[in-house]
Structures are given as C-alpha cells and as structure tokens.
Design a protein that fits this description.
single chain, 56 residues, mainly alpha, elongated
Length: 56
C-alpha cells in the first residue's frame, strides 16, 4: 500500500505540475482528482476496518 500512496500526488502537486490549457486537460485533471478522492476514501475505510479488527 505504501507504494500506491507514494505515487499519488496531492492536489497542490497536481496544480503545480499541470495547468490545464484546454477543456480536455481540465476534464482530465478533474477526473484524476475524483479518482484520488475515491482511493483516499477507500484506504481510509480499510484502515478503519483494520483498526476495529475486521478484515475485508
């Protein structure tokens, strides 16, 4: 799991790396942010389950 977290840039890094120059680039950036948020939510829920003693 650590490798996944190291690879995913945070929002500030995404903004610094990419500045959308057209609509398509802006849509791709928005999609990346949605995927990152879903992944963060999933990992947070999994960590909570493990902390409570449940495995999934």
């Amino acid at each position: 799991m650590t490798q996944i977290l190291d690879v995913i840039p945070n929002d500030a890094e995404i903004d610094a790396i990419s500045s959308p120059t057209n609509v398509k680039a802006a849509d791709e950036l928005q999609q990346r942010r949605k995927v990152k948020k879903r992944l963060d939510d999933l990992l947070e829920a999994a960590a909570l389950r493990r902390a409570m003693g449940d495995d999934f």
